[in-house]
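Q: For a teaching session next week I want to show students how multiple molecules come together into a single three-dimensional assembly. I've collected the sequence lines for a complex. Could you give me the predicted structure tokens for the whole thing so I can convert them for display?
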Amino acid sequence: MLRLGKTDYEAIRAHGEETYPHECCGVLLGHATDDGNSVSEIARAGNTRTDSAHNRYNISPQELVKIQRQAREKQLDIVGFYHSHPDHPARWSPTDFAEAHWMGCSYVITSVEKGKAALTNSFLLTGSGEEDKKFEDEAVEVG
Amino acid sequence: MEIQIPTPLRTYTGKQASVQVEGATVSDALASLTAAYPDLKKHLFTDEGKIRSFVNLYLNDDDVRYLPAKEATAVSAKDSLTIIPSIAGGRTLGTN
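A: Of course. Below is the structure for the complete assembly, covering every listed component.
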């Protein structure tokens, strides 16, 4: 289960609406607990795939390092990522899966239909490495 | 020097978010890291001993792959090496 506050949940969805028809992206910061990841705050990130932002996203490693450093100062960890799918279902794609390398982290996807956030789903990346990784549906608890 | 360990790899470092290693270069530091935590090796390196394509290394604020000496870059005790896997994706394969 992924836990996050209402403000962060709505901010993730709003980000997707703002960047529509392009994909938005960002980082989930918080802690891993025994029953899932718990988000304390989110960090928006830039989508470097300006060549194909309507169906691709990439967060620059440089920005990730900066986000991780700032999170560490607040004693937070990176526990996941979010991005949007403009006019496309809130489910992971083969591209999302191929590019997923943060085992134990939650990948949140929001479908944005004609500019309005629709569904927000989360998928936990499980496995020990590239050879056995898989996405598992996980419930989202908004509190 | 200090090496920052990303969340998914902390399983292999006893849950430590950072570890101290010895080494004169980035390569030496990584070798020290995998000597201390052997299970990390396959997650960082290919069978041919090259850094995996989705593993990014930052020496302080610089991407190691763009440094003139790359992994042969000299390091000091005050430096910090960050291991940061890539994050990317998108709704479909190919473009439309």
